[in-house]
Amino acid sequence: MLIASDPISASILISLVMLYLTLLLYIVIRVLKPKHSESSDESREMYLGGEHPSILSKPHVLQSGLYWAIVFRDFKKAYRGLVEKMHTGRVIDWAYYMTAWLLILLLLAIIALGISALV
Amino acid sequence: MIIELMISTLVFPGVLFISALSFFTEWYLRKGVAHMQSRMGPTYVGPIGLLQPFMDFVKLLVVKEETKQKYSLTWLAELFGVLGISAIVSSLLLLPLSPIRIAADYDFLIYIYLLGVMVPIAMVAMSLCMSNPFVSVGASRLLSIVLIVEPAFFTGMLTPILIATHISSSAPMFCEEAYCKLPLYSIFYSSITIGSAWSNPIYATALIIGLAAVVVSVQAKAMLNPFNIPEAEQELIAGIKTEFSGPLLAIFNLLHNVELSSSILFIIYVFLGGPYPFRHLSIQGVLVLMAKYIAILTLVAVVRALFGRFRVEQGVWILVKYSLIPAIAAITIVSLSNFYA
Amino acid sequence: MNFASNVVGAITPLLAISSFSIPLLSLFIKNKKFYNAYALTISAIALAMSSWTFARLIEGGYKPIVYKFGGWPPPVGIVYEVDALNGLLGLYASLVMFIAFLFSTWYSKFIDDVTWYYTLLLGLETGIIGCIYTGDVFNLFVMLEVLSISAYGLAAFFTRRPTALEAAFKYAFIGALVTTLYFIATVILYSAYGTLNMADLLGKSTLASSSGFSGWLFGDVTSASLAAIAFTLWVFTFKSALFPNHFWVPDVYSAAPVPVIAAFSGAVEITGVYVVVRFMYTLFGAESVLALNGYRDSILLILLILGIASGIVGSLMMILQKNAYRLLGYSTISHIGLLYMVLSLGMSSIPSDVLKTALTALVYHIVNFGLGKVLMISSVGLVSTPTGERDLDKLSGLSRLYPIASIGITMAVFQLIGLIPFGGFYSKLLMYQAFISSGQPMLAVALIAISAISSLGYLKIFYALIFPPLLRSSVKEREGVVIPIVSALAVAVLLLGLFSPAVSKFIETVVENSLMPKGVKMYYESFIEVLRNYTGGG
Which of B298, C244, C402, C426 could be a cystine partner for A97, CB 3.0 to 4.6 Å? Predict the structure, then answer.
């Protein structure tokens, strides 16, 4: 059986199926889940390979460290260019890029007019 | 029809089928890699250890205790995991494999948003529900990889879709029976027409490049060697999985395995035409389908066994080189040849 | 019809007068609550008037409504001309502004001087609605100035914060320079065409017909149009924060009051996009003098490239940000990039049905992005305002205090990333359709890359506000009116997705009746009709 339709109603149908499955599976898992009594204090601490959590100053990594690998390793060059060349915060740098864009627009106009003058 | 749809999404090709397939996939990967590394692999449960992954799952889900950590949001993590699994299962409705199927213009994009966006977000959100520095580092690594993998996977999968649509619109001779009226740019359409495109040398080149790119990106999506840095067991304890235990770990493992097996399933349909040149409901068709599945799976297993783990920045650049750029090359070839045809 | 046109004409004077009367009222009334109610009522009236106008438009088969200021006929006097597109966008903008005013009633607890704040915010709404409804190129300049000056004032509102002053100074300095260039553009247009009326310009530039009133052309029309368009595009890409003109956004966002940020990203930048669309598709369409030697095509191509660049730069910079609102500023830049990507599919080589899909995607995405963004800003605003902090690290875990904010942030992230079945997915789906069917799959790849990169940025907010445990003890502020705002918007973004067949069909009709050749013709004909009525059927 083929339900051929437009992508919009197809995706709505799929999301309904998704909702139905999510609810169903969630309930099944909740039911199957073993019931245990309250566990010890030690197991409630986070697992740090045997270290005690007191070695951490914060229990989570700050968001500014989340993309360390991307910013300082993978796309180091791109970010260096973006931050040090473009988003410096100096008005003169803004003006530099903005003027370049205006010049492109004007240059294109001059070229278009020049062609028609030649032809 | 609604009842049929509800049953179908639970049984075939729904939760039961894809879970069974994913258990088989896990067993095959473990056994295959063990064989290549002269180890035994799973042997304990079932004939040649075939039921080991299933029993692992059941044990985690039903028997093992879930340690509730102080800062955790277990219920939210479970919900995200289940959401990821149901996104994958409902995407199976787009395949010709399914008895009740959805096919629409551009449904390929629905697939990409289900598999490429929903599932990584579910995985990351699931792991971030547990507060732990190792988890954060693992999630950050996973995200770095996702950043490259998803565009690469999308681009690679777009190759056969573009080819199939172009074939149908330019040469009506491929238009058999009722297929002409089928929606364009859809998974369904690509899987029934792509088989004939392999005879065209230009398309075949593009398809091979695209297939290679997609297989590499699936390797990374499934966090298999050499891209298993997000869960790097020695240095990060278990990365994103550090705080998972009991049922939650079972859900995460299932999500991970189901993602791998459904990706392979979509690859063999979209790139290799599923049971092409036979039909679904024939013995040859089923055998061909199984052979293709095992071939791709073996490829994945070989890559997994051959390489050690890459560091995250190495992994990202390997992905750019061997997945993103080839995929872009493949669709460029297709666009150019369509343009000049 | 007559009454409808009077309503159109009354919105901006109403807003302007009520804005300027606040300083006077402040001599007599000191109560904060009065100003909250006053501004909210005015914006509610504006919302009612713009929705009433749009309803009349639908009733009249999308025939544009023309209002003559002072009764002067079009090419001589100033007119407001509302067609399907600016009718819809006017309704949308006044809705966004209404939400901003509603949020302000909660936010006003945290600011000292509300009179000044509301004067400027009403001034901003005057400028926005004026820019959207106007049918006159010079009136557009005036309204742009009203908008800009209020915007500079609002950006500098927290005068005690050095960052606010710096941002406002830079924004005002460059902004003043930029708007002057638009003045030059209007002068050039007037010197060549002898008219400032948009429909009259359209007639002369495209249909090569004159209304008779403003005479025929003076001098070299082509070079004048080219120069004027170059200046205009530059100015309005600045207002809408397209890539090389985007620098003001993060600075202003990082220091402005929260409702103002919502108004900026939901309405001010959209106004810029609207003007560009109006110039490129109505005034100087595919058959106008601008198409000379492929000038229009090459401009659209450059806008396309800048759109991609804007999307990528915006989403890459999101990953780097520490300030929540600065991050949202870059996310706006990235979405504006997407809007320009679909906006520029009007090249002559692209078939018109693809263009129609693209423009539908544009309008749909404007609504999706705007409402998603306002939802995001109000949820983050609820968390950040009581503490006075804007740094994500210092806000960590705080949204556990406000469950409604967690829900709002989650829904907004899903909307802005474009997950199924949220509205954001469907406008992106239309974008993909337009890109793939125009034979440019690389654009679709660029779109998915931008979405992938920006989803990392949104996850940062998610990660900072929702997931970490709340360690510091903080005082919880009462949510008050924010609860209905956030829940209504959260439902709205979901409904935009679930009812997307109807919504996209509706927007397609709007686009067909405004930006496609049929709509452009209607825009010109209503102008001629008004003129005929005046001259007695001549």
Answer: C244
Compute the CA torsion angle C319, A72, A97, C342 (nearest 10 deg).
-40
DSSP string, B12-38: SSSHHHHHHHHHHHHHHHHHHHHHHTT
**Interface residues of chain C, partner chain B, Cβ below 8 Å:** 417-420, 425, 429, 432-433, 436, 439-442, 444-445, 448-449, 451-453, 455-456, 459, 462-463, 467-469
In whole angstroms, what is the distance from residue C349 CA to residue C99 CA? 41
List the single residue in A with minimal CA-CA distance to C293. Answer: A112
| C64: phi then psi, degrees, rounded to nearest 5 | -55, 145
Residues C361 and C342: beta-carbon distance below 8 Å: yes
Which tens digit of pLDDT belongs to each residue from C239-255? Answer: 999 988 999 999 999 98
- The count of other CB atoms within 10 Å of the CB of residue C496 is 24
Interface chains of chain C (3 or more CB pairs under 8 Å)? A, B
Cβ pair C404, B103 in contact under 8 A: no
Instruction: Give the A window 66-95 contacts with C, CB below 8 Å.
Output: 66-67, 70-71, 75, 78-79, 82-83, 86-87, 89, 91, 93-95
> Cβ–Cβ of A100/C245 closer than 8 Å?
no
- Choose among C131, C155, C125, C332: nearest CA to C256: C155
- List all residues 6 or more positions away from C514 whose beta carbon is below 8 Å from its beta carbon: C62, C83, C84, C85, C86, C282, C520, C523
Residue at B333: amino acid letter: I
**Selection from C200, C274, C293, C275 nearest residue C231 by Cα:** C275
- In chain B, domain spans: 67-340
Span B52-81, pLDDT tens digits: 888 888 888 888 777 777 777 888 889 999
Give the residue ranges of DSSP H helices in C108-247.
114-133, 137-155, 162-193, 198-202, 221-239
Low-confidence stretches of chain B (pLDDT beneath 50)? 173-174
> What is the helix (H) or strand (E) element at residue C339, kind and residue range?
helix C324-343
Q: Indicate the residue type of C423.
A: G
Interacting residues of B251 by C-beta distance below 8 A, sequence separation 6+: A29, B61, B78, B81, B82, B85, B126
Q: What is the DSSP secondary structure assignment for residue B323, as one 8-state letter?
A: I
Rounded-to-integer distance, Cα C77 and Cα C65, Å: 16
Cis bond leading into B277, ω under 30°?
yes
Bond before C23 cis per omega within 30 degrees: no
In C30-116 the beta strands, taken as DSSP E runs, fall at 65-68, 79-82
Which helix (H) or strand (E) segment holds residue B177: the answer is none
Three-class DSSP category at A4: strand
Low-confidence ranges of chain C (pLDDT < 50): 538
The span from the first CA to the last CA of chain C, in angstroms, equals 21
Looking at residue A39, its pLDDT comes to: 59
Place of tokens 């009612």: C48
- Percent of chain C having pLDDT more than 70? 96
- Amino acid, single-letter form, for residue C198: M
pLDDT at C2: 73
- Whole-number Å distance between alpha carbons of C425 and C390: 29
Q: Give the pLDDT score at C339.
A: 94
